[in-house]
Fold:
Amino acid sequence: MLTYILKRFIGAILVMLAVATLVFFMLRLVPGDPIAAMLADAGSEEARIAMVKRLGFDKSVSVQFLKWFENMLHGDLGASIYGSNQPVSTIILEALPRTLSLALISFIIALIIALPAGILSATRKNTTTDHVVSFFAFLGLSMPDFWLAILLIIVFAANLHWLPAIGYSPLSEGFWPWFSHLILPSIAVGTGFSAIIARMIRSSMLEVLQTDYMRFATSKGLKDWTLLIKHALPNALIPVITVIGIAFALLISGAVVVENVFAIKGLGRVLIQGILNRDYPVVQGAVLVVSAIFVLSNLFVDLLYAIIDPRIRYS
Amino acid sequence: MEHMEGSDTEIKGMSRLYSVICKDRKAQFGLIVLSLFILSAILAPWIAPYDPNEMTLDMMHSPSLSHLLGTDDLGRDLLSRILWGTQISLFVGISTVSISLFFGVILGLLSGYYGGWIDMIIMRYIDLQWAFPNFIIAVYLVAVFGTGLLNVIVAISLAFLDDFARIARSMVLTLKQEQFVDAAKVQGFSSWRIMIKHILPNSAAPLIVQGTVSVSYAILGEASLSFLGLGVGANTPTWGLILADGRSFISQAWWLGVYPGLAIMLVVLSINFLGDSLRDTLDVRESTS
Structure:
C-alpha cells in the first residue's frame, strides 16, 4: 500500500514536470512571431525590444527554460502584458476560489440529483420511473452546458428575476450572495455530470442487488430502505468513485465554458480571455494551474479508491 | 473462404442491427433525426430560405411565417444560419473522429503488437494526454495554433487520439494470444497483414461504439470552442457562434438563445441514442461468438 501511494505521488510529480515543460514550449510553438502577435498594432520598435527583454527572449532557450522553472517553483509566473501588468500569480489566486466554489456547488447539486435518480431506477428496473430517469440522463448528456446556462438565464434571471444573471460575490461578503450567484452556473455545469453518475449508480446498484449477501439480507426480512441504504449503497458507490475522477474532467471543462456565460472571473474566464488577448504569460499560468488541479484530483481519487476498497491489493 | 466468412458475419450484423432498430424506439428517433440533419446539411444551399449572412433591416424579428425562427440583431434569418451551421457541425464531428480513429488505431496497433520500447514511448505519451480533459486539450491547442476550421479539426482530433489508441491497444493485447493470430504467423504473413486483416476486424466493435459516441463529443466540442470565440471563424455561421452572437440579446429575443442550442442538442441526442443501441447490438454479438 505504502509503495503504491509513493508510486502514485512520483507519477503525479513526473506528469506535472512534463506539463510545465510543455507549457514553457507552448509560447515557442506559436506559429510566426509571438511577440508581434502579442503587440498587435501597438508594435513600435521600442515596445518590441522591451517585450523581448521582459519575456527573456533575448537569452538562449536553455537559459530561459531554467529561469522559467526556477521562477515557477518560487510561485512567480510572470506578469500580464496588459493594463497594469498584474502578476499572473495574483490574477490566478483571485480566480481560483471562484472556480473551486463553482466546481464544489456543481458537484453537490449533481450528487443531489444523481443519487436518488440512480437508486430509484435500479430498484424499479424497467418500469416507467426507470425509463423517465434514463431519458433525462440522455438529455443531460446531450445538452451543451453553455446552452443550458443561457436557458437558465432566460427563465430564472431575465423573466422570473429570481436569481442574478451574471457575476460573482465572494463568500466573505455573505453566504447568500455567494450561493445565489452560483446556483444557475452550477446547475449548468452539474447536469451533464449528474447524468453520468446516475447511470453509473444504476448499473452498479443492479449488480450489488444480485449478490448473495443482498439476497440473504432480503430473506432475513430487513426493511427495504435499511437494506438499500445500509447494505447496497456503500458497495454500489465503490465503482462510482473511479468515474468521479473522469467526471471531474467534465466539471473543469464545464466551468471553463460556463464561467464565460455568467461572466465569473474564474480560471476558465482568465484562460479564455488570455487566449483571445494573446496574453501568453496569463495563458501559461492558467494552463499550469488547471493542469495541476486536474493531476491532483486524479491522484486523490486513486488514493481514495485504494483506501476504500480493501479488496484491491496494490503491489 | 476467409472473405466469405467476413461478408457472412457482416450480413448477420446488419440484420441484427436492423431488428434492434425495429424494436428500439430510441434508435428509431436517433436515426430519423440524424438523417434529417444530414439531409439539411447537404441541401442547405437549396432549402435555406435566405442567404445566411445577408443583413437586413428586419432586425430581431420574432418567429413568423416570413422568418420561421426569427431574425438576429443584424437582421439575418436564424433558420438559414442554423441550416448552414449543420454543415460545419457534422463535418467537424465526422472528420475529427475519422482522423483520430485512423491515427489512434495505428498507434494502438503498433503499441500492442510490438510491445517493448515502441509500446513504452507511445504509452507514456498516451498516459500524459489521458491525464487531461479532452476539451481542455483542444482549448490549449487552439490557443497555440490559432482559430480556423483546419486548426479546430486538428485540435479536436488530437484530443480524442488517446481514447482510440487505448482501446485498440487493449484489443490487440487480448487478441495476440488467440490461436488464429498464431496460425497467421506460422503461415508467414507479414505483421501488417496480421494486424489489418486479422486483429483489426475482430476489434471493430468497441471502436465503432467509441467512434459513434466521439462524434457527439466532437460536435459538442466544436460548438463550445465556437461559442468561446475559439472556433472556425467570425464569418462562418456555426451553432456555437450563433449562440454566442445572440447571447447579449436573449432578454429581448429568446429565440436567439433557444433554437441554435436545440439543434445542437437534437443532433447530439440522436447520436447518443444510436450509440447506445449500437452498443447493445455489438455486445450481443460479442457474447454469442
